[in-house]
Specification:
This protein has about 350 residues and is mainly alpha-helical. It is built from ten helices and no strands. Keywords: Coiled coil, Membrane, Transmembrane, Transmembrane helix.
């Protein structure tokens, strides 16, 4: 007869049955655990005790693949040209509200050049004309008058440009306002004096009044127009520049917030995908553990059947023995104890048997 196995061994039926039941419970709990799955929603979450052997086996199986997680898709390097956020950021940084076409830039540059050069040229021509009109006579007197008239007209042109520059910077620096007012007043006085002198010099000549008025007013209009062109077209405001920077920074900030939200959504989707993959891997490992438990149970049941078959075969081979007779315990038989005769019987015997009575006495 085969020796009986210890039920605490792996092939024993009690331990096998316990392990299988624990594996079934663990598989059911893990299948209903958290994580995205194709199963219907609303399944209750169940936690497995830490002392559960089946859970310990599952955790040991999971520990093998903890260091083999793939990197998240959001952490993979992406090409800069395929990133719309980078393109939008580049567009915002390159955006300029005052940007104009190349032809506009060319025309503005030409007008600015004219605004700077025309007053100076007009002042030079007007000064030379004053020298020619009033410098008749001695060479020294004529030369001095030419120099003085040229210097005066150039100073008037300089006052026009100084007024324009001061007006450009008054918006950012209020301390330049007195200078702008002073330059404007001097330019106005000098221009009126120059126009009056020119009108007085040309009034004696036979020139039509319209031509005379045009000849007197055109230099002043050129200088004032140049001043306006320089002050307007070449104007750069610090406040406007700072406002543009603020708008650009705000746009970049909004774009960065949108980028962060997009990355958070990608990270969340990647985490859900990873949790789902881990959940599927967990279920596969749980099923593997369950199959191992079922295999152990099958082996235990097969071993139990083999033991029973061996017991039956061993009983069939042995010959049949007669039934054992019950053994009686040998006890010593004691002689019966005679009871002592009572007094009434003794007296009666003595009464009816006097011989015996006499013999006893």
């Amino acid at each position: 007869m085969a020796e009986a196995e210890d039920p605490k061994t792996v092939g024993g039926e009690p331990q096998t049955r316990d392990l299988v039941s624990l594996a079934l419970q663990a598989l059911q709990r893990w299948s209903l655990g958290p994580g995205p799955s194709p199963e219907p929603e609303g399944a209750p979450e169940a936690s497995v005790p830490a002392s559960d052997p089946a859970q310990a086996a599952v955790i040991a199986a999971q520990a093998e693949g903890q260091g083999r997680d793939q990197p998240l898709p959001s952490t993979l390097p992406t090409a800069a040209e395929d990133d719309p956020i980078a393109r939008y950021r580049q567009k915002i940084e390159e955006f300029d509200a005052d940007r104009e076409a190349p032809i506009g830039k060319g025309v503005r540059l030409l007008l600015l050049t004219t605004g700077y050069v025309a007053p100076v040229c007009c002042a030079a021509l007007l000064g030379w004309e004053f020298g020619e009109l009033f410098g008749k006579g001695d060479f020294f007197f004529s030369t001095a008058l030419h120099v003085l008239s040229l210097s005066g007209e150039l100073i008037i042109a300089g006052l026009a440009l100084a007024t324009a520059w001061s007006l450009k910077r008054v918006g950012s620096d209020r301390h330049l306002l007195p200078r702008a007012v002073l330059c404007g007043a001097l330019f106005l006085v000098a221009s009126i004096g120059s126009a009056t002198a020119l009108w007085w010099a040309l009034s004696a000549s036979p020139i039509p009044p319209i031509v005379l008025a045009f000849r007197v007013l055109v230099p002043i209009l050129i200088e004032v127009g140049g001043m306006a062109v320089v002050a307007t077209l070449d104007f750069q405001s610090l406040e406007a520049f700072l406002a543009g920077l603020h708008r650009r920074a705000e746009a970049i900030q909004r774009l960065s917030e949108a980028e962060l939200r997009l990355k958070a959504a990608e990270q969340e989707a990647a985490n859900r995908q990873r949790e789902y993959e881990e959940y599927r891997l967990m279920r596969a490992r749980n099923e593997e553990v369950l199959l191992k438990m079922l295999e152990i149970q099958s082996r235990g049941a097969l071993a139990a059947l083999e033991r029973q078959v061996k017991v039956i075969e061993s009983e069939a081979v042995q010959p049949a023995l007669p039934p054992a007779q019950p053994q009686q315990s040998k006890t010593e038989e004691l002689p019966p104890v005679k009871e002592a005769p009572s007094w009434s019987l003794l007296t009666s015997q003595q009464a009816w048997n006097p011989r015996g009575h006499q013999a006893r006495t």
